[in-house]
TrEMBL record:
SUPFAM superfamilies reported in the protein's UniProt record: Ribbon-helix-helix
Protein name listed in UniProt: HicB family protein
Family annotation (InterPro entries): Arc_rbn_hlx_hlx, Ribbon_hlx_hlx
GO biological process, one term: regulation of DNA-templated transcription
Amino acid sequence: MDLEHYADQLRQQFLLAAEAHGDEALGVAERLVALLDSAVQVAMLGLLSEAADELTRDLAPDTVELRLRGMAPSFAVTRTESGREQGGGPVFGVPDGGLPAEAVAEDSTPARINFRPPEHLKVRVEEAAQREGLSVNAWLVRVTAAALSEQSGQSERGAVMSNRLRGWVR
């Protein structure tokens, strides 16, 4: 991933802003830009590192790492067998956190849904997700898949779950 493009944009905007205040301000800005280059790089790497941590929480037990080759960062995703088979850590209503493989199929496309629970339920959902170290969205997906799996008796009938919906919504 090339961060230099973003650093260049920041430099250009900073110098453009300084130029509006005259030659003296532009001279000071040019000297400051040279000093800030490494700080900008470190800040961008910090941002990418936090993004990798957040993705890891959402994809648990799979992990996302930020790797550096020189100053070129890249993300590395490590898929675990249990992540593919179970969908991650503990899930409410499922003793070992396991989900049917179909519920977390690698080729499934995420869909959007608008969910508006009452405030007291929202608070409980957020607390449960936090206890498991997941985002609210990841927690809701796991709990929903587990509940639907139990409800349909999937283990007895061998039904296949799908997370695709087709049609119109108003």
